[in-house]
Amino acid sequence: MPRAEETRAAWLEALAEMEALAGRAGDPDFKPSPFTPTHDLGPLPLDLVERAQEVQAAQRSALQRVLDARRRVVKHITALKTVPAARDRDASVYLDASA
Length: 99
Prior knowledge:
single chain, 2 helices, 56% helix, rod-shaped
């Protein structure tokens, strides 16, 4: 396989993997691992520039989803910290979740 075809195939594989990783961002069952290309990718072929830009947009969207989820978690933790600790372990504690 000529070098140009190898480069294009490597980039297609890398873009597909990055796109899949971005699509799973925010999935609570997803355990990401660092992305490492399997081989030297070489320069991005011009015909794949648009696809690479789409993957970049998907990654930005994924980052935004993760940041939004993080903000929600911080708000929940803050709210939970306002609940006073029970002094008597046998006493019932109620939290008005509708207020």
